[in-house]
Amino acid sequence: MNPSAVPPCPDTRDALLEAALACFAKYGYDATSIRLVASMAGKNSSLISYYFKGKEGLYREVFRYLLAHFAAKTGERDALEADRASDDSKDGDGDGRARLRTHIRRLLRELDAHFDTSDPLRVPASRLWLSELQSPRHEVKDLLQARMEPFVREARACLRAIRPDLSPAEVDFWGITLHGSCIHHALMSEIHCLAWTAADPSLALDAMAERLTDFTYHGLRQH
């Protein structure tokens, strides 16, 4: 088949992306071939070159596909958080605690959307995200940076509002610690219960956000 003769077809493109997501998640980047993806999608392998210019382009578009999918899921939540942020700004908390709480709450809800058990993309997406977080590939580093940048920027602003005396290196250290705590609590509740037997795996996100805010805020103020 001549790729240049293939007419654009969104259904075909999406079928290839979904097959690629499944393959990359299950077998990893190196063990996934163009032929394997095409076979799983029930399409001709030449279509991958036509739509994505090769394996690297396909991998990159899988991440774009996932980012668009989760952006659509979190759009309404972002609007809700904006309303809550407005409410928080009225509480007279000038030291940044309210802003920190809003940021933590938004981050936890973002994580909840990415790992929602009712989402059909949850399992392959989770595997792929965790793999990239451990060892990002150059094909998608800029996409990951762009996705994280708003959260990093807001975390820095929160930390500086609470502790304006911190150096840039200290701000980044505490920002990494803050985000790491949120990710750890949100994603590892089941494994925590094996060691921390009194832990509540069903703790509501708002309650978790409040506790993490208290922990971070008081830790920063006493440091």
In short:
The protein is 74% helix and 0% strand. By secondary structure, it is mainly α. The chain starts with 9 loop residues before the first helix and ends with a helix.
Descriptive notes:
By secondary structure, the chain is mainly alpha-helical. It has 2 domains: 1-53, Homeodomain-like (Arc Repressor Mutant, subunit A); 66-222, Tetracycline Repressor, domain 2 (Orthogonal Bundle), CATH 1.10.357. Helix content is 74%, strand content 0%. The longest helix is centred in the first third of the chain and has 34 residues, at 55-88. The radius of gyration is 21 Å and the shape is elongated. The termini are far apart. 24% of the residues are buried. The model is unreliable at 1-6 and 83-93 (pLDDT under 50).
Summary keywords:
disordered N terminus; 223 residues; Tetracycline Repressor, domain 2; Tscrpt_reg_YbiH_C; 10 helices; Arc Repressor Mutant, subunit A; mainly alpha
Annotate the secondary structure layout.
Blueprint: H1 10-27, H2 34-41, H3 46-52, H4 55-88, H5 97-114, H6 122-134, H7 141-162, H8 168-187, H9 189-195, H10 205-222
Helix pairs in contact: 1-2, 1-4, 1-6, 3-4, 4-5, 5-7, 5-8, 5-10, 7-8, 8-10
Protein name: Transcriptional regulator
Pfam families: CecR_C, TetR_N
DNA-binding region: 33-52
